[in-house]
Amino acid sequence: MAGEDVALVDLLDRLLAGGVVLAGDITLAVADIDLVYVGLRALISSVSSAERAGVRLP
Amino acid sequence: VIYLYAITEGGAVVPPGNGLQDAELRLARSAEVTGIYSEHEELEPRPRPDALWRHEHVIEEAMKSGPALPARFGTTFEDESALRAELERHGEALRAQLERLRGCVELAVRVGLTDAEASPVRDGRAYVETRLTRRRTQQEIVGETLAPLGEFAVHARTEEARSQGEVVCASYLVPSDGVQRFAEQVRAIADRHPELWLSCTGPWPPYSFVELEVAA
Fold this sequence. Notes:
The structure holds two protein chains of two kinds.
Chain A: H1 2-17, E1 25-26, H2 30-44
Chain B: E1 2-9, E2 25-29, E3 33-39, H1 49-63, E4 68-70, E5 75-77, H2 80-89, H3 91-101, E6 104-113, H4 124-146, E7 155-160, E8 166-175, H5 179-192, E9 196-204
Antiparallel strand pairs in B: 1-3, 1-4, 1-5, 2-3, 6-8, 6-9, 7-8
């Protein structure tokens, strides 16, 4: 469960700050982002050492 | 409105599956590259887990048949011809990026301290200074600890962690066939350092290694 949360935060970080940006529109409600971040970042700090190194292989 | 997921090579085919709102996936072809998109009557992309994963899955499917540049979440265009014009304009740069990232995936690593002890608050300024010094030291230690991972990656990017309890988060660009070896290295580091916790997720599309940002 916690592994899934870490994966989601890793994905969120990358999708909102990485990737190609072309001259289209990027429409995101800032309030939404904060909400998602707060909820997930609280979880990530509770990942125990037992759940570390959970690589999702192809 | 149309929503962009990824940019692939010229000869790309429509990846299996659907996009946001379960919409059909389509291709916008320019001379050099192909954009994967879906069309919507109305769309306000919200970064909710289901939408984020849907965006991710479209790119993952596309990557099964060749290199793909992931698009930033929430990128929309008025219509297909607006997207195609943009692909034409940056065709050469996009193709160079595809070539650079061919056969590579991204792995995400987070590191924190297992027991981050709280320090007593007495003098406000001294407290802040102590914390800053400690944080810098932590970052140096973790940087050294993670250094061996660099040997298994084509590129590495390290960022200061933003959330509490974490010291560093890093991204590694790794050849697809080197993922297993990389993961074993992460495990080996975790075993050698019980004072740290490590997380490693992926393989991801190379979100952190795309070097193309055109001002909107």
